[in-house]
């Protein structure tokens, strides 16, 4: 280890554990650490660098997970001997991995524990679904082999319009409904239809980072607007960018804090959009899952001037492999969006659209949601109980009325990214709250999905792994 400088630079914004990770990677790539070389023990290196053991452990676990280091029990940890057979020294180190685990990143295997954004895959009625899809396949006609309508299957659009009228209080015709390839497909349709160069967009802070990245890539100028217990702070948006042309919001269950947009702020947001001719994109991603009281009405249901573009998804209520979502546009914008859909067709698979339509029309969807609400309330309770029993007051649980994830609060300013990295190096899929924040918000926490935690025993076991990761 002679000549190897591992002392972190605390003036850098890069977390200390990632600095350690990068320096070990560079040393291995440049040949300063050779295959088989022993690296310092976690305790010894932490003492030498005056760091917490958990910080060094997080760096080591990342290196072990990528195959650069190899633990050998009492013999310590060494640079992986297998690297001797590769031209490792000639390869520049890759950029350090983000501590934010991508909840949309899947490998076709079982989801890792605490994965966000997934329904209970074990509870989906696969036999029923296969029967409905099989019937559609057996009854396909020659006409059904052609290109599907760019706006979506007519039967599915009619079923969605009927469902929204009953469950979300949205009065819309099937002609206003566009079926898209996931939520980002809906955002793409909005941007291609309405966005102009340099448009400003209010964006919740913290807010859904996949939407944030997509909109930035589409050329939107995002204006982070703080969120508090009453949701988006509309007055702050008016102060920061009164002339914005868009606002992207999650009013029923804010992503990721879980709060609901108050009625006063809903009305203020609609007043601003009406006065400015701005567009509000309402992402109603998991409003079906509410465990206390009835689901809140959609913002779109009180939109009298046609300024709300409403989006929903089947990823959270059925399964994400469908890649099906939908967008409801005001009547006066149907032709504009229809033209865009014809030019930039997403062509969601016709078989899947038809099967979802049958699932809705035949009443299976309503029964499935009722079953899932009961199941998720139970699984959420198991996780909350296990967190309290295992971690006590180290985490403060924000228990909201609905949703399919929990926010476990940490002290303001805590390094939630390092803690998430340590947990994820142990096979968990924990997201740090700070990864969803754009501004100076000091709130910190860990986001935990609970839908695929099968029972109380599994919840306790997983919380034990989380406790070990937090140190």
Task: Please give a quick description of this structure.
With 471 residues, this protein is of the alpha/beta class. The chain is 38% helix and 14% strand.
Protein described:
There is one protein chain. By secondary structure, the chain is an alpha/beta fold. Among the domains are: 16-90, Arc Repressor Mutant, subunit A; 146-363, Type I PLP-dependent aspartate aminotransferase-like (Major domain) (Aspartate Aminotransferase, domain 2). The chain contains 14 helices and 15 strands. The strands form three sheets. An eight-stranded mixed β-sheet has the order 4-11-10-9-8-5-6-7, with helices on both faces. A hairpin with a 6-residue loop joins β12 and β13 (405-410). α3 packs across α13 (416-424) and α4 crosses α11 (350-361). The two termini are 27 Å apart. The model is unreliable at 86-104 (pLDDT under 50).
């Amino acid at each position: 280890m002679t000549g190897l400088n591992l002392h972190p630079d605390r003036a850098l914004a890069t977390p200390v554990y990632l600095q350690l990770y990068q320096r070990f990677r560079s040393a291995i790539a440049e040949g300063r650490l050779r295959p088989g070389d022993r690296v310092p023990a976690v305790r010894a290196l932490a003492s030498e660098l005056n760091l917490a053991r958990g910080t060094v452990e997080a760096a080591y676990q990342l290196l072990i997970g990528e195959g650069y280091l190899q633990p050998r029990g009492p013999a310590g940890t060494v640079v992986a001997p297998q690297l001797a057979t590769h031209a490792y020294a000639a390869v520049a180190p890759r950029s350090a991995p983000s501590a934010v685990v991508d909840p949309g990143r899947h490998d076709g295997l079982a989801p890792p524990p605490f994965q966000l954004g997934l329904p209970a895959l074990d509870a989906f009625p696969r036999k029923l679904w296969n029967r409905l899809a099989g019937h559609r396949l057996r009854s396909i006609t020659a006409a059904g082999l052609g290109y599907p309508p760019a706006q979506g299957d007519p039967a599915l659009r009619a079923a969605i319009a009927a469902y929204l009228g009953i469950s979300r209080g949205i009065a819309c015709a099937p002609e206003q409904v566009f079926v898209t390839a996931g939520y980002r497909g809906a955002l793409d349709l909005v941007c291609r239809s309405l966005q102009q160069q340099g448009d400003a967009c209010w964006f919740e802070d913290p807010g859904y980072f996949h939407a944030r990245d997509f909109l930035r890539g589409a050329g939107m100028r995002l204006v982070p607007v703080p969120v508090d217990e009453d949701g988006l702070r509309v007055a702050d948006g008016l102060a920061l960018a009164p002339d914005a042309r868009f606002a992207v919001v999650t009013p029923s269950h804010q992503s990721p804090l879980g709060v609901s947009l108050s009625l006063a702020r809903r009305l203020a947001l609609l007043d601003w959009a009406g006065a400015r001719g701005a567009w509000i994109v309402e992402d109603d991603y998991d409003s079906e899952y509410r465990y206390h009281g009835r689901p809140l009405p959609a913002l779109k249901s009180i939109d009298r001037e046609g300024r709300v573009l409403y989006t929903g998804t089947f990823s959270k209520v059925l399964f994400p492999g469908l890649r099906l979502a939908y967008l409801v546009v005001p009547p006066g914008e149907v032709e504009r969006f229809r033209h865009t859909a014809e030019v930039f067709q997403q062509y969601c698979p016709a078989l899947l659209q038809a099967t979802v339509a049958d699932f809705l029309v035949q009443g299976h969807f309503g029964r499935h949601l009722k079953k899932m609400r009961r199941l998720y309330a139970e699984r959420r309770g198991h996780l909350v109980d296990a967190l309290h029993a295992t971690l006590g007051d180290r985490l403060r649980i924000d228990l909201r009325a609905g949703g399919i994830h929990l926010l476990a609060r940490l002290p303001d300013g805590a390094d939630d990214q390092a803690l998430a990295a340590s947990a994820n190096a142990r096979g968990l899929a924990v997201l740090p709250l700070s990864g969803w924040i754009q501004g100076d918000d000091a709130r910190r926490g860990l986001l935990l999905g609970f839908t695929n935690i099968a029972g109380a025993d599994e919840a306790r076991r997983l919380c034990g792994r989380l406790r070990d990761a937090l140190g």
